[in-house]
Amino acid sequence: MNHGYRNRENTPGNLPVRELKRIRDYVLIIVFACFLIVIGQLFNLQIVQGEKYRSLSKENYLRITPIPAPRGEILDRDGELLVTSRPAFTVFYWYLDEKEAATTLPHLADILGMEPAEVEEKVRKYEGRYFEPVPIARDITPEIYTKIVEDAPNLPGVFIDPQPIRYYPQDDLLSTTLGYVGEITQSQLDDPQWKDYKMGSIVGQQGLELYYESILRGINGGYQVEVDYRGRPTGNVGPGIDPEPGKSIQLEIDLDLQMAVEEALKSALEQNPEAKGASAVVLDVKTGGVLSIASVPGFDPNILISGISYKDLNQKITSGEWRFANLAATGLYPPGSAFKIVTAVAALAEGKTDRTEEFFDPGYHPSAPTLICHKWGGHGYVNIEEALEVSCNTYFYEMGRRLGVDTLAEYCRALGLGMKTGIDLGGENYGTVPSTEWKAKAYGEGRVAQPEFLFSEHMMVAMGQAFHLYTPIQMASVTQAVANQGVRMRPRLVSKILDSEGNVVEEFLPEVSGELVVDPGIFDIVKAGMLRVTNEPGGTAYWIFHDCPVKVCGKTGTAQNPLGDDHSWFVGFGPYEDPEIALAVVVDQGGSGSAVAAPVARQIFDAFLAITQPQEAEQVIAD
Amino acid sequence: MQRPSIELPNIRIESRAVRRIDFWLLGAVLFLHILSLPLIDSATHSAGGHYYLKRQLLLIAASLVMMGLATFIDYRDLVWLSPWILGLNVLLLVAVLFIGRTAGGSTRWISLGFFDLQPSELFKLTAILFATRILCSMDSPLESVWPVIAFYTWLAVPALLILKQPDLGTTLVIIAIVTGMLYFSGTPGRTIFTLILAGVIMVGILLWLYLYAGVPLPIEEHWIDRLVTGFNPEKDPLGKGYQVLQSKIAIGSGTLWGKGLGKGTQNRLDFIPHQETDFIFSVVGEELGFVRTTVVLGVYVLILCRCLIAAVTSADKEGTLIAGGVLSMLLFQSMVNIGMTMGIMPVTGIPLPFLSYGGTASMVNSFAIGLVLNVGWKRHKILF
Question: I need a labelling partner for A74 at 20 to 30 A (CA). Which of A168, A199, A505, B7 fits?
Answer without folding.
Answer: A199
